[in-house]
Amino acid sequence: MRLVLEQRGETGLALRMASPLLAVALALASAAVMFAALGADPLVALHAYFLLPLSDSWGLQEVAVKATPLVLISVGLAFCYRAGVWNIGAEGQFLVGALAGAWLAIATHGAAQGPWLLPAMLAAGALGGSAFALIPALLRTRFGASEILTSLMLVYVAELLLDWLVRGPWRDPAGFNMPQTVTFSPAATLPLLAEGGRLNLGTPIALLVVIVAAFVATRTLKGFEIRLLGEAPRAARFAGVDAKRLTWGVFALSGALAGLAGILEVSGTLRQLQPGLSPGYGFTAIIVAFLGRLNPVGCLVAGILLAVTFIGGENAQIMLRLPLDATRVIQGLLLFYVLACDTLLLYRVRLLRSVPA
Amino acid sequence: MPGRVRHLSATMPLLEARRVTRRFGALVANDAVDLAVPGGQAHALLGENGAGKSTLVKILYGLLQPDAGEIAWRGAPVPIPDPRAARALGIGMVFQHFSLFEAMTVAENVALALDVPEPLPRVAERLVAVSRAYGLPLEPQREVWRLSVGERQRVEIVRCLMQDPRLIILDEPTSVLTPQEADGLFATLDHLRAEGRAVLYISHKLEEVRRLCEAATILRNGRVVATCDPRVETAASLARMMVGTDVGAARRNATAEAGPVRLSVHALSLPPPEPHGVGLDGASLELRAGEVLGIAGVAGNGQDVLFAALSGEQAAPAADRIILDGAPIGREDITARRRRGAAFVPEERLGHAAVPRFRLSENALLAGHATEGFAPGGLVRRSRTLDFVDRISAAFDVRKGARDPEARALSGGNLQKFVVGREILRQPRLLVVCQPTWGVDAGAARVIRQAILDLARSGAAVLVISQDLDELLEIADRIAVIFHGRLSAPLTAAQATRERIGLLMGGAAMAEAA
Amino acid sequence: MTLIEAILLTVITASTPLLIAAIGELIAERAGVLNLGVEGMMIMGAAAGIAAAITTGSSAAGVAAAILAGMALAAIFGLLVLGLATNQVAAGLALAIFGLGLSGVLGAPFVGVPRAGIGKIEVPFLSDIPFLGPLLFRQDPFVYASFALVAGVAWFLGRTRAGLVLRACGENAAAAHALGYKVLRIRFLALLFGGACAGLAGAYLSLVLTPFWTSGMTSGRGWIALAIVVFASWMSWRAVAGAYLFGGVTILQLHAQGAGVPIPPQAMAALPYLVTILALVLIMQARGGGSTAPAGLGTPFVPDR
């Protein structure tokens, strides 16, 4: 027996919608097997993972809070991957954005703060993330160094930078030597949208970004050029696309969105800097981007799903003593299945009996 | 008793395809194909692009399996599960797009095709011996990327001969050679036949087939439509069997008055795009309104860089190296040049001229976004691109299953008509087109050549870069030759004989011409 | 033992896992497959290695389990990128994420369980040579294995027919297929070898270097191994130089921290990553834009049929 791929003609809309759903279903089935192997009742575990987070208002708010950074980052990554630019350092850009915005809050802490502060923090976050993302862009366009490796190496650098700042210069002097900064004042904190939860202004901002991004991706010439560059670089050059500038553009955009996500997370949810401030949003967003078929509205849906797994993972850890890393296994499996199912769009997969030799 | 041997081989073919059928999805590429090649015969396999020649050859060489039918070797049915089995039988293959490994040496390339492993030094020794015996000199230690196209073909042939095959399949072997190199190849083939080896010769060049082959099998739409002795046929009668109807040459109007100089290139030098390639070396040319200038040359002599320089995909070192209608445009990008009324058709249809997985409307947008008002203010108007697709399809008879399919769904000929039509419909002042009918069926080729001639007659300047000398002789008013990045002075249609251009293509007499 | 001797010894231990993982990935890439999931295969090797070693009490069982774990992950990757022709970059990322997660689950029961490391092998007489003796002939088996691997791979690629075929698949898959080679099968085997090496490198981390399990203990070494392959221009002996350069930087910054150099420890810890970036830039500069990568690297191959 062997696996054989046959090129398909055009792929219909139904198949394109069905492929990510199939991937999710397969990932759920595999997760159930893993839970059973870990000695948990698969149904109870699946319930804790995927339904419990959605069962009350507090849970729903938490899902929105966790989905916000995932959606923001993944929309930026979707533009990169569409253009064939492999930015996998969004985690670092997220942290540097958080640092850049938090710097304003910390520097003005206890001094004159006004309504200008929050917008300035958000802008600084986006700029910080963008600037950090332009390093791999520059190394790629100027020197030809693989952006995959450089952007990833910079994640470790950003983590160490954060670590140094919160243990060193930015440590809260009144914080009992804990590695954390001061808690932000209300002027540096995003307003909550509802009482009794953590839902804040960050979520509507992310929704707005999705709408604008969807428009740019599908209706504008720039969106077309990005797709063109990723699909056929020679044809892009024939169309007059400046590949270097577009590479810079998508890196800057995705860095800005990751940085914005970082500062929104810090000023809206955590209200201070601390070493483990991201549970790996920048990496999970890669999965979100692919599950969302590299399309902004898809990223929104996929971001919500992955946010559920984060909260579900915490539930399962508390209730069933399942290790927190089980969440990453499910996320990794999900990406495997998404990629495998995408093959179904391009090829018909057939199992053939081997030809007798 | 040579007579008796001949008789035997005539009754029992060396290789036989019996009712071979092969489908790809809905397409029947080979439909109950019969083919018989007796030992020692030179047999031609004729057919248009897409007629099913490649599929049949791949089946004979074990690269594809037939859905029905069988292959017989010396009268007995044999399975050919892979190329190794084909080689073990005594079938050798010289590929059209060479299956060589650029970064490896000649000896390594040959060693890879040997089924009984031998140490490299021994391979090199044997290779030198074989190449001497057949007059095909090769240096075993050279890397393939350093070799010319003709030398690469030698590697393929020698690699094939090292196995001592009884039947050699050659797929379009002269399409990449100069006429003189082709003569050399014919001499080699005569030598092989004299040794009693059979040759299966795939070509669409009918004169060659008439000169070389004793028998021909003709395929059309996957079926055998005729078998004949090409020596008693004419090129026209063979063409009629291949195509099914009469195909005339494009109608060439009386040479129009050449207008003023529209495009000129002055001593343009550019580095090759990759370290192993060929760049441009002081190329100059002048192109007048109303004329078709042909650029002949063997593949890999700088055609791609010349096209990139003219289109603006690669900028010239100084603006005044390229002048269009009096304006220095050497530093302008392709979009700016399009706005000046220039249009371009690159060689590669899929991936360069068009994106396989994009719809035709998107492929229209690709080339026309700056000049056709498809995206005012940066917003794409799909209705306008769709409309443009309809106009191209009507004017150039682009056949497709839907109004706006993905480009990969079109046949080569129809996609080429779309790609050429996309530019010609804009009524450009200058058209630069590379390999306009490469891999296209005869009907589409005629439509495209006629459109190019009509465009020139309407006053546009047209530059055609082509490796197909027959095509240039048919449509060009003047022909220049590119060799190793240098352009010869153009010859007028009257001066441009096959022999003269062939010599220039081989690099001879370049000094005299320059 | 002098300080220099001590430093050189630690450089060898820091470089060995990088070298083993890099040499495996080098084979996969010479066959034309880019497996970005080295980090995932490596950490699975580390987790499976210590889990098996603690459970069975045998280091050899630990090493075997590590190799098998690396190969299992490579097989999943192979199924995706070869069987289903998915994008290699994306599938590699998925493998890295998956491996990090699964190793955490697998290693959870073993967190903090201490275990004696694997001992050194002394070559009689030779190890008594002053200075060089302890450095070269009093090492753990992994160090010897790493050099045996490099020599073996160099011989395989340069001198054997199988190595020639493997390189052919990486250069031009279509041409290799046209000659009758089973490109996908050969690439799959190359991937398995890469997985085995990554698993072995992981075992070194959890069984020798820090003989206990911590989640995420590879800390980017898999990615650095990928950079070493680029740095080595896909040539096996140069991978030794690359691995020892990065190993050297890691140890240097540790000693600098210990010696109280007035630089924040985080800045020193960032050094290996920054050096990796710098090395990638310099090697691209040195090549003047030309590439020595296998021509078919990263391109999926689907034989038509």
From TrEMBL, chain C:
UniProt-listed Pfam families: BPD_transp_2
Gene Ontology cellular component list: plasma membrane
Example GO molecular function: transmembrane transporter activity
Protein's membrane topology: Multi-pass membrane protein
Principal subcellular localization: membrane
Subcellular location per the Swiss-Prot or TrEMBL entry: Cell membrane
Sequence intervals crossing the membrane: 6-27, 34-54, 60-82, 89-111, 141-158, 188-210, 222-246, 267-286
UniProt entry tagged with the keyword Transmembrane: yes
Family annotation (InterPro entries): ABC_transp_permease (IPR001851)
Keywords: Cell membrane, Membrane, Sugar transport, Transmembrane, Transmembrane helix, Transport
Entry protein name: Simple sugar transport system permease protein
Organism: Neoroseomonas alkaliterrae
